[in-house]
Design brief:
This protein is an alpha/beta fold. It has two domains: about 230 residues, TIM Barrel (Alpha-Beta Barrel); about 60 residues, no CATH class. The chain is about 40% helix and about 20% strand. Helix 3 links the parallel strand 4 and strand 5. It is globular and about 65 Å long.
Length: about 300
């Protein structure tokens, strides 16, 4: 199974040339050039041209470059998708999807994109929540490769409040992770609005890690390093993972499905988790951030 670090996914308005130039020097795993919420209507066309130019210019290194387009039912969506498909970023992130048919419309609009260009979708409407399983299953027949939680739009749609602990959203976070994992999708947590409060960001990132997210979407460069730290395996976790792998590779334990290790019983499922932890760490450390592990 292939792994790619997506600990930090930074949204940047494609209409901001200084932000685009700086992004090539940041330690974010993913840079999302935004044509949608962060761009005023009068700047949409120029932002689209800038995003396409950013893809052609390259220089993104190990970072995954994603472009979030406007919705197909907006005045800019069709032009966005045509231009972005021709440019061929790593992925195209689409907004306001409510069902499988809506996602497939975006997939069809990307028919001319390079095969390597994937489709990511925001999970940000109440209507999509009962459809998460059917949506995730489209990975078998489309470009779909990732969910990105849009908690601000969900809060607006739900008339909910975003407070520490994010209580109204906990069932949604669980459902999104489960649907994604059932079909092999990456899944990225929503943004933390308190970008001047590193403690708030760290708390939300730790919560996202506990829920099983691959990483978190961000709105400010200052959030990158704390987020990367949370979603990177710690030295203690790596030591434990190495010990588990070594124990199962010991000829004394050949053929065993469960063994004693440091006062605990570890099973083959723990071996799988340990191998994944080591593969994630290897991908983070590599200039070519793609690793494989065998479940």
């Amino acid at each position: 199974m292939d792994l790619r670090p997506r600990r930090s996914a930074l949204f940047l308005p494609a209409s901001n040339p200084k932000a685009l130039a700086k992004a090539r020097e940041l330690s974010a795993d993913v840079v999302i050039l935004d044509l949608e919420d962060a761009v005023a209507p009068e700047a949409k066309d120029a932002a689209r041209e800038a995003a396409v130019q950013a893809v052609h210019e390259g220089g993104w290194g190990r970072r995954e470059l994603v472009i979030r387009v406007n919705s197909l039912d907006s005045p800019w969506g069709a032009a966005d998708l045509a231009a972005v498909a021709a440019a061929g970023p790593d992925a195209v992130l689409v907004p306001k999807v409510s069902d499988a048919a809506g996602l497939l419309a975006y997939d069809a609009a990307l028919a001319g994109a390079p095969a390597a260009t994937r489709l990511w979708t925001m999970i940000e409407t109440c209507a999509v929540l009962p459809e998460l399983g059917r949506l995730a299953a489209l990975t078998a027949s489309s470009r779909l490769a990732a969910f990105v939680l849009g908690t601000n739009d969900l809060a607006k749609d739900m008339h909910a409040q975003i407070k520490p602990g994010r209580a109204p959203f906990l069932p949604i976070l669980t459902a999104a992770v489960c649907a994604a994992r059932a079909h092999g999708l990456a899944v990225i947590d929503g943004v933390c609005n308190e970008f001047r409060d590193p403690r708030a960001l760290t708390a939300e990132a730790q919560q996202g890690l506990e829920f099983g997210f691959d990483g978190k979407s961000l709105i400010h460069p200052d959030q990158i390093e704390p987020c990367n730290a949370v979603f990177s395996p710690s030295p203690a976790e790596l030591d434990k993972a190495r010990a588990i792998v070594a124990a199962f590779e010991d000829p004394e334990h050949a053929g065993q499905g469960a063994i004693r290790l440091e006062g605990m019983m570890v099973e083959l499922l723990h071996l799988d988790q340990a191998r994944r932890t080591l593969a994630v760490a290897a991908a983070i450390a590599s200039d070519q951030p793609q690793a494989r592990y065998t479940p």
